[in-house]
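User: My instructor asked us to take a sequence, write out its structure as tokens, and then describe one feature of it. I'm not sure where to start. Here is the sequence I was given:
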Amino acid sequence: MSDADSREAVLQCVRAYREHLREYSRTNPLEVWYTRLDMKTLIAMAPDEKVKKTREQLADKARQRVVKNLFPKIVGEVAGRRRLVDQPPLLYHVNDAGFEERVREALVDYRESLSDERRVLLDRYHLEDFALKVVGIGSVGTRCFIGLFFDEEDHPLILQFKEERRSVLEPYAGKSQYDNQGQRVVMGQRLMQSSSDIFLGWLRGKRGYDFFVRQLRDMKMSAPSEEVTAAQIKRYAELCGWTLARAHAKSGDATTISGYLGKGDTFDDAIGAFSLAYADQTERDHAALAKVVSAGRLEALVEE
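Assistant: Let's start with the prediction itself. The structure tokens for your sequence are:
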């Protein structure tokens, strides 16, 4: 996209955030909590039939992410048992006799973090296999493993257990009220999201590490990056701004934030200018990385 289109997408995002936050500041808290920006709403809000059809297709794709897309890629049959397929260094089993015991103890602790009705749901599944999984860039250096579960009718469930450490904001914002860092993350998600993963929970491992638990790729939906148009990016950015406004209205003081942002577009323009500068810096950083990789000074692993 051109710089002009990129800046306009950012402006639409920030404008939607500012305007919806102002609206929420005049709305009673109960109505804010009941507000939903779900897929059904997005489909109904589509400006034309083409956009509506695209959103319906994205929703259907999201529903099938685990069973039709993820499951066949990471699960296979070994000696008559369904197992997670080793894909080192990204996914692999641990040759440690005590690891299984620690995993099963962790599951007991995790179950205690769930509400009673969700324990009933979890109890329908049994653990079939587990393996370590390399995490994304934002969590490099932390522990993560996934568990493969099945119910009696062989319906799969894949849970991800991600280590959580103390927030980087703690030195500035103060210590969290939650001693378990996994619980801190879960409570934050439940507070801000309109509909959280029903399996969200937390645990503390036998060795003292905190984890939070969620489904590995539940019905998450994102905008496709291939052949996306500037108009689509702008609509998507607007929805992102709206979603963030609702999250901040639930978790913070919408009136104070809205008052800080003001009624004009000063804040919008500032973020628009910052976004272009940030994008330029990112391109320079990537060019520097590509240069050292090409020179053989750094080995890069490309995930297919």
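For the description part of your assignment, you could build on this observation: The chain has a mean pLDDT of 88. Try explaining in your own words what that tells you about the chain.
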